[in-house]
Write a structure and sequence with these properties.
The structure holds two protein chains of two kinds. Chain A is α+β, with helices and mostly antiparallel strands. Chain A is built from seven helices and ten strands. Chain A is about 20% helix and about 20% strand. The chains are: A alpha+beta, B alpha/beta. The structure holds iron/sulfur cluster (3 copies). The site of one iron/sulfur cluster has 14 residues of chain B, from α3.
């Protein structure tokens, strides 16, 4: 199930005033062309792929994101969970990126009373930071415990912080900052189908040594905009369900 | 471990994430960056480690806002490591040195004019040279093109022979061992390798962006990769971890050679045609059986055999990576021989110049600038290189020079962009050496541990506010350009400062050129102009037909002379499946199992087993202390950067790792504070992280913490431990390096 929820999408249009109809997830041309700036861009659903089996925990993605989105030093959209398995000398260590999963069907959007959360044409859940009133409702429904609430140092108002998939970049056909910087190419960006295919072939390769390796996000919440490659079962990670 | 990790993380993730921020955020600067405004993209180079990745600085409202990798730079290839992003802080850091400073008391300074500073320095230096001679003076730096050209030229023009870099605390043993076997320290062609063995090297955390990219590509390609390390580091985490007793990598490597030789699993053609000393080597190596090595290293004999057979099966498209610091570098008494033992295995595999083996890239053509040069001094050095340490590399021994300073034999030092007081063991030794000098001049942007011991601190603009001498790296030609205006108008770039000092010292004739003059001359044989390069920042240049011989830290342009282009015929091209083997850079032109040069100097001609100087036996509460990198910190200079310090704080990563079983035997729990007591009686209190990811014999101290300069406030607030506080001043016998992991401590409860 890779299509965006149409109702969600219409909500987007209401907020952005851009497109009216949007078909996502198919490799070919969209059914109906959207208006304005979006006209020449492919209107496919896009995805970030986090291949945790290549991540060396360097934190460049977090920092690139902080600079890109001009976050104060102590706020970050990208966090990590770490797990160790086994006892010395048979220990293994695994990381998993914990940030907005960009649910295809995003409950946070449904509950936001001021429409501060909305879907973009690429299928990501964006945030209208100015509109957010910091009510914390989205945090109560997010299946992945993503939204963090904190004071905006400029206005002093309470706001929700979460990855917005670099809306200003992806909406112009660009690549999110985390994917641009990652030297191991653990973070990649492309069409949802392409990223899913990459994830699946990587997992097939990993299964030799890691029989429990899996792709996470092909079905959860109608497909996640942040797909994960995991070497051990999702249940091992504190923020995955 | 007692706690179920899953629940543990569930409960604590929130807590650590919400922990209070470090209170050193420049809110005004941040608010200015957040403002909307036109963005200009300007080329530069990262300044956070020696690799100097090409990057673009995006400037908004005249302020550096963010960085992206330069797609045309051979190392960054459009990617950047964490430190590059955080490095912008160095431009606007309120703690920068803003004017020339003169020491007026213990760690106290007053601002003075450039005129006063350079007059006083020149007067004092002249007096020292008159009274004590050129041997009493040294120049030391973290090597960069501009520093290498100007500081070495300045020293040479005064007849001073002692010019040094940081490498005795880094990879000098590797350089030495590789130079006296292969003739140079070649990297592995990681990207194309079918099998790679890393000996203590951690590509994902000891980062050079492009190398990490190749390493990860090999992982993604499904290459078999083994990381030999006493600690499950982040590179081992995504490959296969083979834990080894710290300090014993040499035994393991000798046993692998033993298997390859005794079971006839080596490249007979390569050995016959391109090596010398093999017959003696074959005789010596028989003593190092896998059974023997298993006893020393703790690695099962079967595992040693498996690795040797895997190497043989994949030869020549495989490699034992030549390492950097760690086992083959400046950590142990056996570093140099460990490097030679790495070389031996690669020779047996016959992988030189083979796809996936060892190789060197073609280097960009650099012309030789034709300006009057001082003669390279032939006098005696004050760091023992060439005398007490007859084969030690010319990158020098700053820790030995400090000993000579304490003895009253060295009187003046010039230190640029280098912090040996904090980066060498032991802190008190290095500090006392600096204080014993009559004149210490430090060129710095920040109040480092070395700067605060100086008589004069001369401030440079930050990396984004100045131009520098062109650098090449393989085919890449790149340079640092001026991206933003000077933040502190009183700062002067290094070329300006040295030219000024040289004029005052009466050797101005060697500096009658500008940065542009020199750079233009270097580009004489390239199809683009200096103006073009300033616009592009990084580009691929015309190359020599032959590969460049790898230098020390990166392929720096030597200050006065480009690498001789005719040294090696065209061979090491990774694009060919099998390449002919060239004459090598050794005295014999062959790979040297036996080094005549070593033997003549009184060392073993063939690498042989030796224990770490501190031995291998440990008492019930004793541990060896090993330091190593986290990907988000560089050396001893980044813990003061708020964005990076915040990562440390968020994940509590400046604790000392202790093996879970040892911890439970000692009654130590996660997060406990314990006291470490070194044999010299020194102590330090540290907080422990109990983990299954580490060998029972060792404590792991993440490097880069424990700044002592009171001016580095963020780092001070962050806290942490630097093992150099406890470690003794020592010298490894062959390369003279600082033996930074020859430290055993007893753990006591507090
Ligand atoms: S930049 Fe890449 S390797 Fe580094 S932490 Fe992020 S995902 Fe991992
Ligand atoms: S992960 Fe949470 S915040 Fe992100 S889209 Fe899904 S519900 Fe919303
Ligand atoms: S490896 Fe990282 S710190 Fe070093 S130069 Fe490259 S981006 Fe900068």
């Amino acid at each position: 199930m890779t299509e965006l929820n149409r109702r969600d999408f219409l909500k987007v249009s209401a907020v952005t005033g851009a497109a009216t109809v949007f078909a996502a997830g198919c490799a070919g041309a969209p059914d109906v062309a959207a208006e304005s700036i979006a006209e020449e861009r492919p209107r496919e659903r896009m995805a970030l792929l986090m291949d945790n089996s290549l991540c060396v925990n360097c934190q460049a993605c977090r920092l690139a994101c902080q600079n890109e989105n001009m976050l104060p030093v102590e706020r970050k959209y990208i966090r990590f969970d770490y797990i160790d398995k086994g006892r010395f000398p048979n220990t293994t260590h695994h990381v998993n990126r914990h940030s907005c999963q960009h649910c295809g069907n995003a409950p946070c959007i449904d509950v936001c009373p001021v429409d501060a959360l909305y879907k973009g044409q690429e299928g990501f859940t964006h945030v209208d930071f100015e509109a957010c009133i910091g009510c914390q409702l989205c945090g109560t429904v997010c299946p992945f415990d993503v939204p963090v609430y904190n004071e905006d140092p400029r206005s002093g108002a309470w706001k929700m912080y979460k990855c917005s998939a670099c809306e200003h970049l992806v909406s112009q056909g660009g690549t999110p900052a985390c994917a641009s910087t990652c030297m191991t190419e653990a973070v990649q960006y492309g069409t949802w189908e392409e990223m899913l295919a990459k994830a699946e072939s990587r997992v097939a390769q990993l299964r030799d040594k890691h029989p429990q390796a899996e792709v996470y996000g092909s079905t959860q919440q109608d497909g996640l905009g942040l797909l994960l490659v995991l070497r051990t079962p999702a249940a091992d990670y504190p923020h995955l369900v | 471990m007692a706690i179920d990790r899953r629940t543990f993380f569930k409960r604590t993730a929130g807590i650590t994430a919400a922990a209070a921020a470090l209170n050193f955020i420049d809110m005004k600067a941040w608010a200015q960056t957040v403002e909307d405004g036109p963005v200009e993209v300007k080329p530069s180079m990262c300044n956070m480690c020696t690799s100097e990745c090409g990057m673009q600085i995006h400037v908004k409202n005249g302020r550096a806002w963010k960085v992206t990798g330069h797609p045309d730079h051979g190392i960054s290839r459009g990617k950047l490591c964490p430190r590059a992003h955080a490095g912008l802080h160095w431009i606007y850091d309120p703690g920068r040195v803003k004017t020339p400073l003169k020491r007026v008391g213990e760690w106290e300074f007053e601002a003075i004019s450039w005129e006063q500073a350079t007059d006083e320095i020149a007067d004092k230096l002249k007096a020292i040279l008159d009274e004590h001679g050129q041997e009493a003076v040294f120049g030391a730096q973290y090597p960069r093109t501009t520093g290498t050209l100007y500081l070495n030229r300045f020293m040479h023009s005064l007849g001073v022979a002692t010019t040094m870099t940081h490498e005795a605390s880094c990879q000098s043993a590797r350089q030495l061992g590789m130079t006296h076997t292969f003739g140079a320290a070649y990297d592995a062609d990681w990207r194309h390798a079918k099998y790679l063995l890393f000996v203590g090297r951690n590509m994902g955390e000891g980062i050079k962006t492009g190398s990490a990219n190749c390493f990860a590509a090999a992982v993604a390609n499904g290459a078999k990769i083994v990381c030999l390390d006493p600690r499950l580091n982040q590179s081992a985490a995504i490959t296969e971890w083979v834990p080894i007793r710290p300090g014993t990598d040499l035994a393991f490597l000798l046993a692998v050679s033993n298997i390859l030789v005794t079971e006839n699993l080596f490249d007979r053609d390569f050995i016959r045609n391109h090596t010398n000393g093999f017959v003696n080597f074959r005789r010596e190596i028989t003593q190092y059986t896998p059974e023997w090595a298993a006893g020393i290293t703790g690695i099962p004999e079967d595992k040693i055999r498996e690795i040797a057979y895997d190497l043989a099966d994949n030869a020549p498209h495989c490699a034992v990576d030549t390492g950097w610091k760690a086992a083959v570098g400046s950590n142990f008494a056996n570093g140099t021989d460990t490097a030679r033992a790495v070389a031996y295995i690669n020779a047996l595999l016959g992988n030189l110049g083979q796809l996936g083996g060892l190789y060197a890239p073609l280097g960009a053509i650099v012309a030789e600038p034709n300006f009057p040069s001082p003669a390279v001094p032939t006098g005696v050095r004050n760091d023992g290189v060439g005398t007490e340490f007859p084969v030690a590399p010319p990158t020098g021994l700053p820790h030995v020079t400090m000993q000579r300073a304490k003895e009253g034999k060295v009187k003046a030092g010039f230190v640029r962009h280098f912090n040996p007081v904090r980066s060498f063991p032991d802190y008190e030794h290095m500090r006392a050496g600096m204080r014993a000098l009559d004149l210490l001049v430090v060129f710095e942007t920040h109040m480092s541990e070395t700067a605060i011991e100086a008589d004069y601190i001369l401030p440079e603009p930050s990396f984004a506010e100045r131009e520098e001498i062109i650098k090449t790296d393989g085919a890449t030609v790149c340079m640092r350009t001026k991206v933003v205006d000077k933040v502190h108008p009183e700062t002067k770039s290094f070329d300006e400062i040295i030219t000024l000092l040289a004029q005052k010292m009466g050797v101005g004739q060697y500096f009658e050129f500008s940065l542009d003059d020199w750079n233009e001359a270097l580009l004489a044989e390239q199809p683009f102009s200096l103006a073009d390069l300033k616009r592009m920042g990084s580009t691929q240049g015309l190359t020599y037909d032959e590969p460049v011989v790898p230098g020390g830290c990166g392929n720096l342009l030597p200050g006065d002379k480009p690498a001789p282009p005719t040294m090696h015929p065209r061979v090491f091209l990774a694009s060919n499946d099998r390449n002919p083997v060239p004459p090598l850079g050794t005295p014999s032109g062959l790979f040297e199992f036996f080094s005549q040069r070593f033997a003549q100097a009184g060392f073993n001609g063939i690498a042989e087993w030796r224990e770490p100087e501190t031995g291998l036996s440990l008492g019930a509460n004793e541990f060896r202390v090993i330091h190593g990198k986290q990907g988000y910190h560089s050396h001893v200079c980044t813990a003061n950067i708020p964005m990076l310090a915040q990562i440390t704080k968020d994940y509590d990563t400046n604790r000392i790792w202790m093996n879970a079983e040892r911890a439970s035997a000692l009654g130590v729990s996660d997060n406990d504070t314990v006291r470490l007591r070194a044999k010299n009686g020194r102590t330090a209190e540290v907080r422990i992280m109990v983990t299954e990811r580490i060998h029972p014999d060792m404590l792991f101290a993440p490097a880069g913490y424990g700044n002592r300069s009171p001016y580095l406030e963020v780092s001070q607030a962050l806290g942490g431990f630097n093992p150099h506080d406890l470690c003794d001043f020592r010298t490894e016998p062959i390369s003279g390096h600082a033996m930074m992991s020859e430290l055993i401590v007893a753990v006591e409860s507090v």
